[in-house]
Amino acid sequence: MSRPPAEVLHPARLVARRREVRRQRVTRIRRIVVSVFAVCLLTYGGWSIAHSSLFALDGVEIVGAHHVTRSQVLSVSGVRLGMNVLSVEPGVVAGRIEKLPFVGAARVERIYPSKVRILISERVPVAVVSMPGGRYLIDDRGVALVPVGETDGLPVIRSASGDEVQLGRPLSDAGALQGLLIWRSLPVSLRSKVFTIDATSPVAVTINVEGASVVFGDASSLGAKVAVFGSLLERARTTHHALLSADLRAPTHPAARFSS
Q: What digits encode the pLDDT tens for the residues 138-155?
């Protein structure tokens, strides 16, 4: 079977086709150049805007700070006036602030175009731990907050531990932590009536509440021990004989002494 003869282009048509091919090639090159130029322009424009004075930090708002000062927060945060807001990394800055002993949690927000807001949740002191090396405020998790002298209104946990206390970190003394846990297990109405907690031995923790010396031992079976303690206090109120002392180390067989 014979093939059809190949098309023979007229010289004029051949020239026209070559011109068309060149025109298309030039058009493609122009599009590429324009696209590259546009990307460069946008990149430069974005860089220029991002590094312009529009984003220069001119204000820092701090919310929730009561025990820590503004200067303390700014000092550890690394945030300074005049820096570019876009260079502030909220997570990194919050992590720095949370190293302050009184700061339980921090959140940092950029307020465009030129401000930063720092929100702080502080730890609340609930007791004082008295150790051979000093006295420290602690929160309800046993985190040491700051050295203190005499304090009013907070229970004092006496500890015999010579362990080093690291501010912003939980105590390592088992006795003090057992005493704190026992205090936290008491009804809110009784916590404010606890003056001292003897935690020199972690297995013989003793609290002084409403004039009574009550041995809890360790923090095991706390629910049962607190229930028995409540029954003893109720008995004291109904009989008008004050509770003087109690031993709750064996809550099923408690020992108690009342005034006559």
A: 999 999 999 998 777 899
